[in-house]
Amino acid sequence: MAKKNIIGVIPPIITPIDEHEHVDEKGLRAIIDHCYESGIHGIFVCGSNGECMALTQEQRNEAIRIAVDECRGKLPLIAGVMDASTERVIENVKVMEQLGCDTAVVTPVFYARHATQNETVEHFAEISRRTEADLMIYNIPTFTGIKLTADTIIKISQIDKVIGVKDTSGDMAQFIKLLNYFKGSDFLVHQGSTNLSVPSMLMGADGFVPSLAPVFPKAHINVYNYGKARDIDNAMKWGKIVDDICKIYPMAKSQTSSTKYAVSKVVPVSYRACKPTEPITEQEMKNIDAYMESLKEYM
Question: What radius of gyration do the chain's Cα atoms show?
């Protein structure tokens, strides 16, 4: 089992791109540096918020390369390698390893209608057999079409090199079952649904994965710190603020567009999203500007 150092607030950072949808290296480095200077605990590159499946494979690898170089010696890094088949994921993991990242975030396969719980167990087993990286389970049924049960996650956890789970199922009862099962172990249990971060931290989660943490680091770090300290009153106080921050997400037609725009207000990067994501409108930008101004004390 790997070291338990991937803990705390681990945002799935955006991937800034230019007009040709090439990764903006300077911008990506600036975002990671901003996270580091803000006290954020780690980086998740090429997650859903990082438009991992919209980037070409070459662009995704470029983002991982940049993140590895920028995070080295500063922040733990996990990288999304999700794809539509076991063979494709294995190929992605091997490239990720060559680029210098040692922790891969893996979902069940998607698009395939026949995905089952047992298939996903075998998916992880085959990846483990043929790669050297640590593996983190990413349970995100709204994107993959399959919800891994707590029992399946526990079964996968017994596979060599599987070190943790990011659970974005939104199922708190399942999450509690995972927390109880893995309590006292080195297996990482991260909450992927930001709205469940307060009860998750109070009950012993290792961290959570909020997209807007780079914009409002103070609020998210306080939820983590007060939650770990079992300070219910302060955890709930800052949790309410994080809930208010999350109202930014639906302020554009695309959550990717609203998030990228919000990040661009604190780090000088383009808020362009990969096609065919609908771009943010002038009115949506004005609305977000006004709302962020009302929350500026928490940035």
Answer: 18
162-167/134-139 β-pairing: parallel
- pTM score of the predicted model: 0.96
Q: Which of 15, 7, 5, 4 has its CA nearest to residue 211?
A: 15
Which residues in the chain belong to E strands, given as ranges? Answer: 8-9, 43-45, 77-80, 103-106, 134-139, 162-167, 188-191, 207-208
Q: What tokens appear for 247 in the block?
A: 């109202």
How many CA atoms lie within 13 Å of 146's alpha carbon, on the beta-carbon side?
A: 22
For residue range 117-149, what is the model confidence (pLDDT) as tens digits?
999 999 999 999 999 999 999 999 999 999 999
Pairing of strands 77-80, 103-106: parallel
Q: What percent of the chain has pLDDT over 70?
A: 98
Comparing CA positions, the residue from 154, 100, 107, 110 lying closest to residue 132 is: 100
Residue 66: closest CA among 128, 137, 8, 14: 14
- Evaluate whether 95 touches 104 at the Cβ level (below 8 Å): no
Question: Helices marked H in 131-253 — which ranges?
Answer: 141-144, 150-157, 172-182, 197-202, 217-228, 232-245
pLDDT digit string, tens, across residues 70-107: 999 999 999 999 999 999 999 999 999 999 999 999 99
Q: What region, left, alpha or beta, does residue 183 occupy, with left being phi > 0 and alpha being psi -120 to 50 degrees?
A: beta
Q: Is the pLDDT of residue 158 over 50?
A: yes
Angle CA 113–173–116, to nearest 5: 20
